[in-house]
Amino acid sequence: MAGPLPSPHKPRRKPKKSSNDSDVSSAAPPATSRSSSAKPAYPLAAFLWPARSSVSQWEILPLILMAVGLFRWAAGLWGYSGYQNSPMHGDYEAQRHWMEVTTQLPVSQWYFHDLEWWGLDYPPLTAYHSWLLGKIGGIIDPSWFALHTSRGLEDPTLKVFMRATVIISEYLIYIPAAVIFVRRLSKHHGVNTWNAAIALTAILMQPGTILVDHVHFQYNTVMLGLVLASMSSVLAGRFMWSCVFFVLALGFKQMALYYAPAMFAYLLGVCVFPRINVSRFLGIAVVTLITFALLFLPIFLGAMYDTHRGIDARPELFGHAAPLPIFTQHSYKIDYTAWYYPIIQQTAQIVHRVFPFARGLFEDKVANFWCTLNVIVKLRNYPSELLQRASLLLTLAAITPGCFVIFVKPRKELLPLALATTAWGFFLFSFQVHEKSVLLPLMPMTALLAGNHGLSKNTRAWVGFANLLGVWTMFPLLQRVDLRIPYYVLSLLWAYLLGLPPTSFGVYSQDGNPSWSGFATATLHSIFYAAMGIWHVAEAFLTTPQGKPDLWVVINVGVGTVGFGICYLWCLWNLVLGSGLLDSSQSEKRKAKSQ
Amino acid sequence: MADLYPSIAQCAVVATAFKVLLFPAYKSTDFEVHRNWLAITNSLPVQDWYFEKTSEWTLDYPPFFAAFEWILSQFAKVADPEMLKVYNLEYDSWQTVYFQRATVIATELVLVYALHLFVQSSPAAFKRPSHAAALSILLSPGLLIIDHIHFQYNGFLYGLLILSLVLARKKSTTLASGLLFAALLCLKHIYLYLAPAYFVYLLRGYCLGPKSIFHIKFGNAFKLGTGIIAVFGAAFGPFVYWGQIPQLLSRLFPFSRGLCHAYWAPNIWAMYSFTDRVLIYVAPKLGLAVNQDAVNSVTRGLVGDTSFAVLPEITARTTFALTLFFQIIPLVKLFLDPTWDTFIGAVTLCGYASFLFGWHVHEKAILLVIIPFSLIALKDRRYLGAFRPLAVAGHVSLFPLLFTAAEFPLKTIYTIFWLVLFLLAFDRLAPASNRPRIFLLDRFSLLYIAVSIPLIAYCSLLHQMLWGNKFEFLPLMFTSSYAAVGVLGSWVGFLVVYFTS
């Protein structure tokens, strides 16, 4: 990825000596030998090795962005979810259909149009995003998004267009956010630019996001990028901007709610500690409300304009009014002819579409607590209300400790851990979780690579473990659409670049000072990696015993749940350690050891 | 030198991951060509190999390549036996695609090994530049576009070429180098263009004494002679025995093809055709005769038969005379100074001459120049100055090979990535020359590189927007004329460097 570079040129900036972990990416040279004998500790460090000292980041950054872009585009050559899979197709068709709906129908009908065929069920920002992309695509070829006739279209040029929209959206949102976030976090911790470049590449090569967005097809990176932007605004101390970005993330995909409790606790925390700051609180509150208002404004205005023009949101009712989908029993109190009726109607419909309370506890096999519990106890036999309440209670129990810590110790460097902890809590215990939602806890956890000791063996081992386990639990989803090869290639490549199992066990070697925690990590991870490896062999070569067609998926779910539970505990433990809440002399010793 | 990072192996791993992701990418008819050859060699007796013509893509590579296909076909049986049926035209099950693509990646290991040996064999002071040059070849956009998307086995073949060039570095392995090159000729005869340089180098450096040309080393000459006869005997002997040589030669050298290939390779003849096009409009004013038949062939440049409206026709004989003439000039110097560096320079110049003046040159043949040149491009800054426009022109000229929308970002971004990375790295690694630099050449190459950006933008995007599907030959003509200027300029520049160092 890079050629050797001694330099006849003057370095643009002096390499920072102050950093406290400038050597974590290179094997620390023994004190007796000269420093020139240092060598990269894992392949990704080797690739950036020539850029160690004198290369300007304006040379290295474009190269990194081009390289990761090439991998994304090449991965996109493979099939997508629902490819040649009639009648319903998949996520790709959903996204394409939304472009069709938003560009061809009046605004008021967006959330009502033929809900059986991939009805719009994401918040308004996704609708606007689809509208924009649909408009652009319509210029290139109007047949791509023609009403009704374009359903299930599999034009290869359309595929190129759709792939390009994912990449462009990512390069406009996620990637700038990641670049700025890594720069701010590494500066905050005094990590040098070379290590920051390694962390950035590792974050951008994360196999999960590439596989879900660029291969399987979705626009998660837009939401994740907005959350990253929100986190990086926090790092810069711009709390109001952070609210704006976070609301936009929520407005793009409701999944960002996984982060909301921690984000809320943090922002509340900075208004209360060390002293109560009312003006900051008011500022945050007002900006949040305004952003929400602006987010919904186009829909409301559009709906009111449509009413004015005499276009009904539900033309299939021929002018009759239907009760609202939520608060149905109170619907009769509303005046259907009032000027504000479209607003209430749209809001109710959007909330109803975006939060499908009516559906079950879980839909598909997903590596969370409920799905695993279902193997032992048939949850179908319990009333759904009880299950929903149990789910709510357990989720609250899982997220409360993390939120509490970040509330009383609102330190910005703890935010990624806090977001990861609550996201794991949601993923494990809330209802209606999808396999792909594992990207949410993975994003802030992977961001730890850019932080203090981010590239040390311990952090790399844990971040790597979570990511590889995460993509592994998505394997059943991917292989259903014949995406085994990109799965293997991208996840093994990432493991190789970061020196992780199965390509190398270097992260677990403890040179010098062996510790119990290191030994426990190595044992624990080895068990999981072995399980994943055996599972892959079994899945590929053995047929499931009769009457248990889902055996492999069930095992996958079980192993995944336990592993994710461990990741949750690790994030929570590090959050507590980092907050200094345990700071007595004894725990300080422990902290020093674990890092 | 401990810090040669990233290592060749590390780059090979990451590049392999990328190439595997390219499995479903566009593949040209060459894919079907090679599938057909797998089928022919696997299912027919050797006597029929060069007569079989069910598919229009008949076997037109020398016998060793056919044998290579036969070996691959033994593994192909496991992947999907259907691909080995001669009548199964255009067969491309996913097993077939994965298998054929995988063989390209696997056989490219020869290149990895050859490059490793090249770095090992270079003197300590040149380890770092050599390492960078080796990586530039390994990650070459040319090989990526031609082999891993378009489909061919150049990585394997150029691997053997580099191996042979590296073996020529040491006295003890010169014989092996010569024999390996002979074997390479029996794999793909395009390397005949480089043979004059080998001939002179082996003659002067291996068969004649270092002090005087009248001191003939008969032992060496005998070893080399019998070795080469043995290699060619193994390849062509059976066909001589069956009396099939005329048929074989007609397959290997199809002279019925035209001067320029389907798309104009960026050489002298592309510029000649371009001039002719322009003259059609100018000639009446100058009172020159215009051949109306030629003017009417609107599809010019897209069909094999090129005929000229104003300028005189070019015969195959003319092109060969010119090629040979421009090959002999550098060979004189090689004869007088048979060092390895001069040898590589001479090989490069032979490649240049054949590419610029040859008959029916394909744009893929630019690798014949770029790859040997890469080995010495970092010798000093003057070499680099001549290499730079070639690197840009050569790779840009390959763009028309891929014309599908999905591959457009791959070819452009990858090539830009490679150019930025390696031109920056080379710039820092090439030592200053002890001779004054050629001012004009430096400025020329900078300007030249700058022009490539609007050119790519026009050819790939703007033209389509402005004209739709009209004048489709225009982007092709611009690309090849632009690239021809670069290749020609770098050739002249390198000639100067070669003769003054």
Automatic annotation (TrEMBL), chain A:
Gene: alg6
Keywords: Endoplasmic reticulum, Glycosyltransferase, Membrane, Transferase, Transmembrane, Transmembrane helix
Organism lineage: Eukaryota, Fungi, Dikarya, Ascomycota, Pezizomycotina
Top enzyme category: transferase
InterPro entries: Glyco_trans_ALG6/ALG8 (IPR004856)
Localization: Endoplasmic reticulum membrane
Biased composition annotated in UniProt, kind: Low complexity: 25-38
Transmembrane domains' residue ranges: 60-80, 160-182, 194-212, 224-249, 256-276, 282-305, 390-408, 414-431, 461-478, 485-504, 516-538, 550-576
Signal peptide (residue range): none
The species this protein was found in: Lachnellula suecica
Pathway per the UniProt entry: Protein modification; protein glycosylation
Protein name in the entry: Alpha-1,3-glucosyltransferase
Disordered: annotated segments: 1-38
EC nos: 2.4.1.-
Automatic annotation (TrEMBL), chain B:
Classification via InterPro entries: Glyco_trans_ALG6/ALG8 (IPR004856)
Alphabetical GO biological process terms: protein N-linked glycosylation
Compartments in which it is found: Endoplasmic reticulum membrane
Enzyme Commission code(s) on record: 2.4.1.-
Pfam families xref list: Alg6_Alg8
Domain of life according to the entry: Eukaryota
Membrane topology qualifier: Multi-pass membrane protein
Catalysed reaction, written as an equation: an alpha-D-Glc-(1->3)-alpha-D-Man-(1->2)-alpha-D-Man-(1->2)-alpha-D-Man-(1->3)-[alpha-D-Man-(1->2)-alpha-D-Man-(1->3)-[alpha-D-Man-(1->2)-alpha-D-Man-(1->6)]-alpha-D-Man-(1->6)]-beta-D-Man-(1->4)-beta-D-GlcNAc-(1->4)-alpha-D-GlcNAc-diphospho-di-trans,poly-cis-dolichol + a di-trans,poly-cis-dolichyl beta-D-glucosyl phosphate = an alpha-D-Glc-(1->3)-alpha-D-Glc-(1->3)-alpha-D-Man-(1->2)-alpha-D-Man-(1->2)-alpha-D-Man-(1->3)-[alpha-D-Man-(1->2)-alpha-D-Man-(1->3)-[alpha-D-Man-(1->2)-alpha-D-Man-(1->6)]-alpha-D-Man-(1->6)]-beta-D-Man-(1->4)-beta-D-GlcNAc-(1->4)-alpha-D-GlcNAc-diphospho-di-trans,poly-cis-dolichol + a di-trans,poly-cis-dolichyl phosphate + H(+)
Transmembrane segments: 98-118, 152-168, 180-201, 221-242, 318-336, 383-402, 408-426, 446-467, 473-499
GO MF term set: dolichyl pyrophosphate Glc1Man9GlcNAc2 alpha-1,3-glucosyltransferase activity
Top enzyme class: transferase
UniProt entry keywords in alphabetical sequence: Endoplasmic reticulum, Glycosyltransferase, Membrane, Transferase, Transmembrane, Transmembrane helix
GO cellular component, one term: endoplasmic reticulum membrane
Pathway: Protein modification; protein glycosylation
Family membership: Belongs to the ALG6/ALG8 glucosyltransferase family.
Record function comment: Dolichyl pyrophosphate Glc1Man9GlcNAc2 alpha-1,3-glucosyltransferase that operates in the biosynthetic pathway of dolichol-linked oligosaccharides, the glycan precursors employed in protein asparagine (N)-glycosylation. The assembly of dolichol-linked oligosaccharides begins on the cytosolic side of the endoplasmic reticulum membrane and finishes in its lumen. The sequential addition of sugars to dolichol pyrophosphate produces dolichol-linked oligosaccharides containing fourteen sugars, including two GlcNAcs, nine mannoses and three glucoses.
Protein name: Alpha-1,3-glucosyltransferase
Upper lineage: Eukaryota, Fungi, Dikarya, Ascomycota, Pezizomycotina
